[in-house]
Amino acid sequence: MEVVIVPDAAAGGELIAESMAQLLRRKPDALLGVATGSTPLPVYQALAARVRAGAVDTHRARIAQLDEYVGLPADHPESYRSVLRREVLEPLGIPMDAFTGPDGTADDVQAACEEYDRALAAAGGVDLQLLGIGTDGHIGFNEPCSSLASRTRIKTLTEQTRIDNARFFDGDIAQVPHHVITQGIGTILEARHLVLLATGEGKADAVAATVEGPVAAICPASALQLHPHATVVADEAAASKLKLADYFRNTYAHKPEWQGL
């Protein structure tokens, strides 16, 4: 596992955006897996700046969704499809027909989950999957003790997660769906390159467990240790509990370019 320690969230965003830009220069129709939330915003903003500057062409790029609420119409402003349209597709100039995501309004949600896994495979697989991490080590909506071989499936949100997400629904928890569709850990591990961005002191324990702890379902993100090309980008605060932090700084900080992106 590559571990790159950066000064702050903005630096992490720039680094990952450049990795995506390099990928798109090599493979203009690359399938980028994206996540919602505040953590990846610096990545999308930095990549959009490169698009505006003419440093990268995204007109053939494709976007795949990590997770989605169950029951929210696709055009609901807080559906993850709508969020990604605002934060990723529109700033990057990528049309909606280049977007792949699970159908959270399907009558048969389990069938929709299985269809999404098939759609990802038919698209050639995800080239680079961007991930965030929860304070408990979850990735996507794969909470602690999720199967490390799990596929895209429906999950029930914890009460705390619904409370946390109520801020996006005018503070009204009654509007927050009870269920989501999420790519499973097994599905996530099929991407060719996994890039996890972690920022802030609140993520320090989870980052340490992911990188230096055992591979265990109690920390779903630790499954990244099983992947042949996984990169963790952490700011100084998120990396503060890594025992090997100095080693990682010395290994990656002075590379002329981040290899393998």
From TrEMBL:
Gene3D superfamilies: 3.40.50.1360. InterPro entries: Glc/Gal-6P_isomerase, Glucosamine6P_isomerase, Glucosamine6P_isomerase_CS, NagB/RpiA_transferase-like. The active site is at residues 67, 136, 138, 143. GO terms for cellular component: cytoplasm. Allosterically activated by N-acetylglucosamine 6-phosphate (GlcNAc6P). Its EC number is 3.5.99.6. It catalyses: alpha-D-glucosamine 6-phosphate + H2O = beta-D-fructose 6-phosphate + NH4(+). It comes from the Bacteria. Pathway: Amino-sugar metabolism; N-acetylneuraminate degradation; D-fructose 6-phosphate from N-acetylneuraminate: step 5/5. Residues 10-225 form the Glucosamine/galactosamine-6-phosphate isomerase domain. SUPFAM superfamilies: NagB/RpiA/CoA transferase-like (SSF100950). The record marks 146, 153, 155-156 as: Part of the allosteric site. GO terms for molecular function: glucosamine-6-phosphate deaminase activity; identical protein binding. Coiled coil: none annotated. It holds the Pfam family Glucosamine_iso. GO terms for biological process: carbohydrate metabolic process; glucosamine catabolic process; N-acetylglucosamine catabolic process; N-acetylneuraminate catabolic process. Keywords: Allosteric enzyme, Carbohydrate metabolism, Hydrolase. Belongs to the glucosamine/galactosamine-6-phosphate isomerase family. NagB subfamily. Catalyzes the reversible isomerization-deamination of glucosamine 6-phosphate (GlcN6P) to form fructose 6-phosphate (Fru6P) and ammonium ion. This is Glucosamine-6-phosphate deaminase. The lineage of its organism: Bacteria, Bacillati, Actinomycetota, Actinomycetes, Kitasatosporales.
